[in-house]
């Protein structure tokens, strides 16, 4: 039996993960591949609502122990999906009062068993502008220097994930106005070709 691909997509807030991964899933489904995407934050929020959290961006303000429990429940739900490709839209870390908390601690990696790690990145000034322009979300305010720091922490968090699981990391740039190109790079990274879909 061929195992499915579980592709972790990380990127700092506002880099364009959700936009990009939605494009990737549409392309793959158009090519008759069963692909789905789960936003880790949304799955956790569904669980959190049951304990009275009503704001999606309020999740990261919960005590670390509570976040840990919700994280585990989300991992179990995602690991049961049977699509050919499951994209997991998440964060390498969450800025909390106690410091940077890992989005993919070992206990979560052991449940999810990701096959690929993809870091979505962009120029710090583009990320800054995207955060400022997006009025649909309640994102933390930050400077360009802060964004550069977040990009560095993200890389160090992801290299640990790669070592712990033995799965590769690829960095893909989501350049301004180039979502389609970035989506094609994601598809190639996980071993599919577009038009004639086949294993590389
Ligand atoms: P979060 O981690 O907070 O969920 P995200 O990484 O999922 O953020 P999105 O919500 O997908 O980010 O995108 C943030 C904003 O950037 C949106 O307004 C989106 O339309 C815009 N955006 C995404 N990709 C691009 C791109 N390549 N060019 C221009 N704008 C983009
Ligand atoms: Mg998102």
Write a concise keyword list for the protein shown above.
single chain, 200 residues, alpha/beta, 7 helices, globular, binds adenosine-5'-triphosphate, binds magnesium ion
Structure overview:
Strand 4 (about 95) and strand 5 (about 100) form a beta hairpin. About 45% of the residues lie in helices and about 20% in strands. A five-stranded parallel sheet has the order 2-3-1-6-7, sandwiched between helices. It has a two-stranded antiparallel ribbon with strand order 4-5. Helix 1 (about 15-30) crosses helix 7 (about 180-190) and helix 5 crosses helix 6. It contains seven helices and seven strands. It starts with a strand and ends in an 11-residue tail after the last helix. It is globular, with a radius of gyration of 16 Å. The mean pLDDT is about 90. It has helices spanning about 15-30, 40-50, 65-80, 105-110, 125-135, 145-165, 180-190; strands spanning about 5-10, 35-40, 85-90, 95, 100, 115-120, 170-175. By secondary structure, the chain is of the alpha/beta class. Bound molecules: adenosine-5'-triphosphate (ATP) and magnesium ion.
Question: Care to give the gist of this entry?
Answer:
This protein has 200 residues and is of the alpha/beta class.
List strands and helices in order, with pairings.
Layout: E1 5-10, H1 17-30, E2 35-39, H2 40-49, H3 64-79, E3 85-90, E4 93-96, E5 99-102, H4 106-112, E6 116-121, H5 124-133, H6 144-165, E7 169-173, H7 179-189
Parallel strand pairs: 1-3, 1-6, 2-3, 6-7
Antiparallel strand pairs: 4-5
Helix pairs in contact: 1-7, 2-3, 3-4, 5-6
Bound molecules: adenosine-5'-triphosphate and magnesium ion.
